[in-house]
């Protein structure tokens, strides 16, 4: 009887631990919330000249705002929801941005710690489908069908507490 009770306790404890861990790294990244800025040489090669800067704001409720500044054009703001999940390979995480207008982008993000906190991205639009292939998590950022020219860096300006 003690063996059955002990076995039951172990199974219940294991199930509780698995349930507590399930989704721990799904949905939100503790490092992502806050304001991120990409400008100058941090913009991807595909955006050079067409975009002055991009400001991304992520909150802890999985909502984001993206403001794009272009030369001679009023700023454009897009909003939506985001989801972050871990990948099996490397230091990257998978990011899905679902814009309120129905557009969707997917790809890899990777945090870089230098003299400042940076976020490196390789995101491609998947909805509506433009024929771009998201990056391969095993190969890391720069492995999307848009290649190394699609890598963009953001500098963290503020954190959300």
Descriptive notes:
The structure is a single chain. The chain is mostly beta strands and 161 residues long. The protein has one domain: Beta Barrel (Lipocalin). Helices cover 12% and strands 43% of the residues. The protein has one helix at 2-21, and strands at 34-39, 53-58, 63-70, 73-86, 93-99, 104-113, 117-127, 152-159. The chain has an eight-stranded antiparallel barrel with strand order 1-2-3-4-5-6-7-8. A hairpin with a 4-residue loop joins β2 (53-58) and β3. It is globular and about 40 Å long. It starts with a helix and ends with a strand. The model is unreliable at 3-25 (pLDDT under 50).
Quaternary organisation: single chain
Query: In sequence order, what are the helices and strands, one letter per element?
Result: HEEEEEEEE
Low-confidence stretches: 3-25
The neighbouring-strand order within the major sheet is 1-2-3-4-5-6-7-8
The overall pLDDT, averaged over residues, is 84
What count of domains describes the coordinates? 1
Please estimate the helix content. 10-25%
Strand content: 35-45%
Would you state the CATH class? Mainly Beta
Remind me, CATH topology?
Lipocalin
Largest sheet: 8 strands, antiparallel, barrel
How far is it from the N-terminal to the C-terminal residue, by CA?
50 Å
Query: What is the level-2 CATH architecture name?
Result: Beta Barrel
C-alpha Rg (nearest Å): 19 Å
Helical segment tally?
1
Dominant shape: globular
SSE class: mainly beta
DSSP strand count? 8
